[in-house]
Amino acid sequence: MEHIFDTNVANFEENSIAIFRLQYAQNAVYRQYCNHLGLTNVESVTSLLQIPFLPISFFKTHKVRSFSVEPSLKFYSSATTNTGRSEHALLNPELYIKSFTLSFENYFGSLKNCCILGLLPSYLEKEGSSLIFMVQHLMQLSAHPLNGFFLFEHDQLLERILFLEQKKEPYYLFGVSFALLDFARKFKLNLQYGKIIETGGMKGRKKEITREELHQELALGFGSNRIFSEYGMTELLSQAYANAHGHYHLPKWMQVRISDLNDPFCFLPTGKTGILNIIDLANIASCAFIQTSDLGKLNADGTFEVLGRADHSDIRGCSLLVG
User: Fold this and answer.
1) Residue 202: is it exposed, middle or buried by C-beta count within 10 angstroms (0-12/13-18/19+)?
2) Within 13 A of 83's CA, how many CA atoms are on the CB side?
3) pLDDT tens-digit profile of 107-138?
4) The whole model's pTM is what?
5) Which domains does the chain have, with CATH numbers?
């Protein structure tokens, strides 16, 4: 079903319903969840608004799979809390590669002649990171000789950045938030050719700050307003990217719905804050309909914003399926 990447507004709903029916039939966890909600007749689902979103916490406690054979690859969350690590099993890694490549190039443009740098210590230190897998493959696609990951070698990263600036070569620096802050506070730069992409990751490492505060400090330290954000997670196979204003742009095979904080089955209009629900049609082998633990809102231009996390995110939906 790789035609999902060519979807448009006219057939997005049609593709979503087809994937929902497939996953209801083949994903035991999702089917049980739907049944607990009283949805037992898939033929009755004729609208996107009727499709249930599976709470993301199920990826920590169950095998959320729409296939029965041994997976080709497994990704695990970084587990910054004590609630365990999410597992996302892939049947076809090439689908993930196509998804993140198109997501990146649709927003930033071609990778050709661009250097890719990674400052992702908390992810490099653990196996099974979907983010590391993504950045590694973006490096392979760009084939730039100066591509590379950096753990805590800030001086070497600085040297690499200054060389690229001197050569006037475009580059992207993917960085976990706390590591980018450490780097920005250590060196005062004036970048002209690089784009900084923060991937989140402050929880448990430093004092929590708002996204606006983070970007202000990064812009000051890097001497650049070209600070971007990536919205992705282990449980999804696609990404959204945002500029300094924090408005995330979705690839055309993804959509966002906002549900009421107290009623996850009541969807809210544009501008209202609630729980972010993600439709990611690339999640064919797991579940394409994910209720996240993030708070956000939709904007009139089709973008969305992330406004924090729900305090009760780890317990929503868990009581419906045990064992």
Assistant:
1) middle
2) 16
3) 999 998 899 999 998 677 778 999 999 999 99
4) 0.91
5) 2-70+255-320 (no CATH), 95-231 (3.40.50)
